[in-house]
Design brief:
The chain is of the alpha/beta class and 190 residues long. It contains 7 helices and 7 strands; from the N terminus they run ββαββααβαβαβαα.
């Protein structure tokens, strides 16, 4: 059986951002399953300009846009890691999501949110679920909200509290269940 391809979209470019800690953690936990090929798609590395038109309606796409699209199109599922800014998600993430549409169709999406406060980005989570539904994706019921990310994860992405290992296991198991179910439906040869 071929491994599933589940990239992790790192949805922040802010200076001093803390969300890479959780993106590294989740990508490593996906690798450890032995069933997943993954990579972090860091929006800071792509630096997309403000979207004027979706990729499929452009003949002059910004650099990196086709590459990003091919990774999304190839994906069996997706993880999004986003910080909560002012009770929402970063504009740079919305901009990147809006460039694409068919690349998300019928793909399970696991959403991890982070915040420096006590609630772990629950407003961000609710909003991202709505956006992903509208783009044709299937946000999974489980989520991975991380409160006080600066205290709960070190720079390398190691959790400081054991509960995050269990929460990540539950979150990723649900993502894998949905991804395998959707993939089997789309490609019975898997």
């Amino acid at each position: 059986m071929n491994p599933l391809y589940i990239p992790v979209i790192l949805g922040s470019v802010r200076r001093g951002r803390q969300s890479p800690r959780v993106a590294r953690f989740l990508a490593e936990r996906l690798r450890r399953t032995g069933r997943v090929e993954t990579e972090i798609l860091d929006l800071a590395e792509y630096d997309f300009p403000i979207m004027e038109e979706r990729l499929h309606q452009r003949d002059d796409p910004p650099p990196g846009l086709r590459e990003f699209a091919s990774r999304l199109a190839r994906a069996d599922g997706i993880v999004i890691v986003a910080p909560e800014y002012n009770n929402g998600y970063p504009g740079v993430l919305k901009n990147a999501l809006d460039y694409f549409h068919p690349e998300y169709k019928r793909k399970p999406v696991g959403i991890a949110t982070v915040s420096s406060g006590a609630f772990g980005g629950l407003n961000c989570l609710a909003q991202l679920r709505l956006v992903m539904f509208n783009l044709g994706a299937a946000p999974i019921p489980a989520a991975f909200p991380v409160p006080r990310v600066q205290d709960n994860f070190d720079e390398e992405g190691n959790p400081r509290e054991p509960m995050f290992e269990k929460w990540a296991e539950d979150f990723l198991n649900e993502l894998l269940w949905f991804t395998e179910a959707f993939t089997a439906r789309k490609r019975p040869d898997r």
